[in-house]
Design brief:
By secondary structure, the chain is mostly beta strands. The chain folds into two domains: 80 residues, no CATH class; 72 residues, RNA polymerase II/Efflux pump adaptor protein, barrel-sandwich hybrid domain (OB fold (Dihydrolipoamide Acetyltransferase, E2P)). Helix content is 5%, strand content 56%. It is built from one helix and 16 strands. The strands form three sheets. An eight-stranded antiparallel beta barrel has the order 1-2-3-4-5-6-7-8. A four-stranded antiparallel β-sheet has the order 9-16-14-11, with no helix packed on it. Strand 2 and strand 3 form a beta hairpin. It starts with a strand and ends with a strand.
């Protein structure tokens, strides 16, 4: 599995080569690292690589897969660009932010779970539906505060790309 990670203005291709519990062998661009990675209860990541310890805190931003990263001395923006995000970026010309109220399937897939009901109040950032596509499950969140006015699909349904799944007023 590989993803692209954007740190501030730098892009790096990160590939998981091997995992045994918290011991990972990863490839970053063309360099292979053996690391010990622990996700702590307080939301930080403890990474040991080549007998050096690094603690990193990732704070989620309003946009899925975007974070602010903090180390002892640095702050940086982090964006995870996986297959789903790359697909979305390619379809919308590089811009994912939207004022769109409706939840729309970005690609063909299968509805795994619907977490809201018609008439229910939702808040911006609340997960409302889970879609399986490209061998992974993705959570889709309300982009605005509002009321669910219509759910056009049911759990288990197969959907097409650009199909409206949930409408929010």
């Amino acid at each position: 599995m590989s993803v692209e990670i954007k740190l501030n203005d730098r892009f790096a291709r990160v590939e998981l080569i091997q995992q045994n519990n918290n011991l990972l062998k990863i490839k970053v661009d063309d360099t292979i690292y053996d690391i010990d990675l622990m996700h702590t209860d307080d939301g930080t990541f403890s990474i040991i690589e080549n007998n050096r310890s690094h603690d990193i805190e990732l704070v989620p931003l309003d946009h899925p897969k975007k974070y602010l990263g903090y180390t002892l001395y640095k702050t940086f923006e982090v964006e995870v660009i996986d297959a789903e995000t790359r697909y979305l970026l390619d379809r919308v010309g590089g811009q994912l932010d939207s004022d769109e109220k409706n939840i729309i399937a970005p690609m063909p897939g299968k509805i795994v779970r619907i977490l809201v009901a018609e008439g229910e109040e939702v808040t911006k950032g609340q997960t409302v539906i889970i879609l399986a596509a490209m061998k992974m499950e993705s959570e889709y969140k309300a982009t605005v505060d509002g009321i669910v006015s219509k759910i056009s699909v049911a759990e288990g349904d197969t959907v097409e790309g650009n199909q409206i799944l949930i409408e929010i007023e």
